Amino acid sequence: YYFPCQRWLAVEEDDGQIARELVPVDEAFVKKDSENDGQSLATLGLEQKAKSTTYTVKVKTGDKKNAGTDSNVFITLYGSKDDTGIVSLKASKINKNKFERGKVDEFTVESVDIGDLKKIKIGHDNKGNSTGWFLEWVEIDAPSLGQCLKFPSGRWLDKSEDDGAIERIIFPAELQTTEYIPFVPYEITVYTSDIFGAGTDADVFIVLYGNDGICTQQKSLCLNKREQRMYFERNSVNQFIVEV
Predict the structure, then answer these.
(1) Which of 82, 169, 56 is nearest to 123 (CA)?
(2) Which of 45, 103, 143, 160 is the most exposed place for a label (fewest CB within 10 A)?
(3) Does domain 52-179 have CATH number 2.60.60.20?
(4) CA separation for the pair 205, 118 (Å, rounded)
């Protein structure tokens, strides 16, 4: 079995995850072929995307005194077929200091197919200067499934508050579930010209148009400012796998 990764495991890189669940792929994808290497890597990205689900997890910390936490927060997603295992929520896409009072933090969680999402377990390790945490809600969006679920909490995860629990199992609120047309992964290859000043550090985005003028949402090709500086250099070819 071959489990290629081709991704960072770093808080400051990619989607910020420091653990990855890898899926097995056909042997042909890992055999080095100088003529076809770029193509096989791109196809590999699509193959892996097709076998996994990417979840956008938003976490709202309540607007109460001492609601924020410095502890390490983790989450487990439970589906009808399987669960994700424990996932550490390390790098928020929105805030440098995560889980602060009244703030919403956003994380990416990737997993193989766990089926329909049934419940979550979220908690912390009770370490740090300020450990207690008031969790308002969790929202989980799965674009490839076309579903967004809200998990209301409104309770403390604190050894000295409420019932003293520092982890909770939460079920989705049916009336707050949103369903939409599932997203599809595309392989995008961008060729930057070989003329003076051709490269850019700007936020490059793409919109795809189909029949009758129906189009996708605007999608940035880079995940962060570091990638913006790294890609789209003069005389370069950059490949991206994006869900739109």
Answers:
(1) 169
(2) 160
(3) yes
(4) 34
The predicted structure's pLDDT at residue 17: 83
pTM of the predicted model as reported, rounded to 2 decimal places: 0.80
Residues 168-208 have pLDDT tens digits of: 999 999 899 999 989 888 889 999 999 999 999 999 999 99
Listed in sequence order, the DSSP H helices in 147-230 are: 225-230
Rounded to the nearest angstrom, the gap between the alpha carbon of residue 44 and the centroid of all alpha carbons in its chain is 19
Give the span between the Cα atoms of 153 and 168, in whole angstroms. 9
pLDDT at position 14 is 78
Yes or no: say if 122 and 137 are a contact pair by the CB < 8 Å rule.
Answer: no
Q: Give per-residue burial for 98-113: e unless 16+ CB within 10 Å, then b.
A: bbbeebebbbbbbbee
Residues 6+ apart with CB under 8 A from 196: 234
The tokens of 6 are what? 């081709």
Region(s) of the chain under CATH 2.60.60.20: 52-179
